[in-house]
Design goal:
Blueprint: H1 11-54, H2 57-65, H3 67-70, E1 84-85, H4 87-91, E2 103-111, H5 113-133, E3 140-145, E4 148-157, H6 168-171, E5 187-188, H7 190-194, E6 205-206, H8 216-219, H9 227-230, E7 234-235, H10 237-240, E8 252-253, H11 263-270, E9 282-283, H12 285-288, E10 300-301, H13 313-316, H14 320-325, E11 330-331, E12 349-350, H15 361-377, E13 394-395, H16 407-410, H17 415-418, E14 433-434, E15 439-440, H18 468-474
Antiparallel strand pairs: 1-6, 2-4, 3-4, 5-8, 7-10, 9-12, 11-13, 14-15
Length: about 475
Amino acid sequence: MSGSDIPDTSVGEINDSVALDGSSNRRGRLVFAVILVLLLLLCSITTVIETLVSRSPDQIRSITRNIECLQCHSELIPAMSKASVHNPFMLKGCTACHTPHGKIVEKSVITGAKQSWERTKTLVEWLPLKLVLDVFYSGEETTSIGSISTEVTEARVKGEESSLVLPETELCWVCHGSLGAMKNMEFTHVPFESGYCTNCHDPHASDFRVLLKQDERDLCVTCHRIGPELARKQVHAPVAGRFCLNCHNPHASEYRGILVAGQRDLCFRCHPSVAPLSLLPVQHSPFEYDNCTGCHEPHGSDYLPLLRKDQPALCYDCHPDINQDFLRKSHHPVGTVKLACADCHDPHAAMYPALLSAKDNAMCYQCHRVAIQTSYDASAHKEVLCIRCHTPHGSDYAPLLQERNPEVCLKCHNPKYYDDTKGNNHPTHPTDFDVNAQEPLTCTSTCHNPHGSDQNFLLRNYSSPYDGQCLQCHGKVGYPRVGIDY
């Protein structure tokens, strides 16, 4: 083909076409850039508005103040909205408790098409945060090599670990020095004494009061295993609800068990009916000397009412001599379903000696009213106390006699006139046999009722001087001669 066959296209047209294409590309890039900026601006505005609406001014100020730390520790940002936030965390700065850390390093990154896309996506996602961070950090230098670029960036990254400005066991005292006096109290909670406050408290924020790591009803039982006590037949109401702080101070106390008050005063708060007993003249030693837990379990028990043991075993721990009385031949039925120690003795306090619930013979009449009181109060013995003849716990002589019959009678009735060993008197000793009562002969086997009688001289069946009383034995048919043979 000759040169004349080449289309006649001017150089100017070619240049105009190239210029047109270049201008079009520039306009497209400009439009894309504007759209990108608008999107970034919209994201930023949306983020700012959402932050202003959802967070308080104090939270916003705290986050922006600590943005250098929170960019890495972003999991702490939601903590700002919790119910309980530590004041240094909210109102001051992370460096109030922590030393700053991190170092500037230089790194080179080779980027290509995929890397450029990832970088762009990250910029769009985090540009609002980056704009803030750029105020604190140095810029970057980029060198292009064709479609691949080498980017040299100075960036702040984690270096050596941060540490507390003071040892953990001392740091809290900087602000909470008022609690320091409690360390001198006699009884201290181990975490408090050792300075490990964060065993119980979150140092930043918490959903629970006073920055507790858990609800107090759950927190205490993580260290104090009270499950077995909760499984007992009776559980103390505060323990059943796990309201440990109703009774215990979480830091320290002058009272054993880090109680918030002395045992008596503490128990009276929920048991006001017991409080007036502290004014009575006769006090049970554990009750008087602030030792309620000497008898009662504070958490749970298998013995009502929250006793450490069942009665009378609990009482025998302090009164072992009384235990021996109840092992004798004749004794009150204590320890059975019929009778317990507390049926006669008030375990706290009483108006009468020995913590008795009534005075003198009225004490006995609580059980022996029908069988004994009516006749006894009408008898010659009415001024004599029951315990003059009977022991209240146990005896080797039935029925609960202080001494053998007739010796118990002869303490008041002159042996000169009644004891056959002292003269020519009627026999009254168990060495003789009572043919009427079919038992060893004593003052009370057939002749006398010590609790009273409708006859004179406390005679059981016939008044004196009639012969009927004597003839019960001396006229007995079918037996050898007894005394005078009528």
